[in-house]
Amino acid sequence: MLTALAAVVVGGAVVAVRQLDDSEVLVRERCSATVGADTFELTPPQAANAALISGVAVGRGLPARAATIAIATAIQESRLENIDYGDDAGPDSRGLFQQRPSQGWGSEEQIMMPLYAAGAFYDALVEVPGYETLPVTVAAQTVQRSAFPDAYADHEPESRAFASALTGHSPAALECTLREPSATGDPLAVASAAEEVFGVLGGTVEGNRLTVELDGTAGWAAAHWAVAHASALSVTSVAYSGLEWVRSDGGWTPTTTAPGTLTVTVAGATP
After folding, report:
1. Disulfide-capable partner of 243 in 27, 42, 105, 252 (CB 3.0 to 4.6 Å)?
2. Structure confidence by residue, pLDDT tens digits, 34-46
């Protein structure tokens, strides 16, 4: 479609309006987790933070329930955004979990690092006896000691869906609808970011493609993590276990991949 200019009269004034190219059609960027009959949405930055939180649980060998509790907490405390301010109840609260330096959670600089904040939350959570079987809101409140102890329960359905997908227990359950990348990606940056969360994964890079050998839930956890970070890392496709997420389509479709092989392709020259 060729770009064109049209004249529109608005309030007596003539305004030039440019017709968009096909490649410029506005896209509402979003990521969704579908588990069973339920679908929940987050923005790409929120989904990336949820993936980091879940990935830390996977890297530590914690159950998916831990990720559910942590995501529900972060939704309530910060809307899964790494915010640099608190409220009247905790004016020094910061980060994904609104942790407070004055309460021993670490320095403000540390708390504003999502990887540190997630780790600190899990350090406290695993000290809660029987947290795996406690109601989400009870486990979260025991860690957070919030002024609104029942609020975490409001976010249990979506946190369970995203945790199930992002810990790899629900294959092909997370997908993102994104605009085309505006920058070239770096597969080494993808590998480095993933290993910060999951620990050493290994893998090889060829051209603009990262290939990693992973099995089962670990493979799906890493695949979903890559999709959730596709906006930030200019990922164009993710393939695992016979399915592929392609950025231009947004969903998972059949493809040919070797069992246990995860491939992540970023924007750039064709390999």
Report:
1. 252
2. 999 999 999 999 9
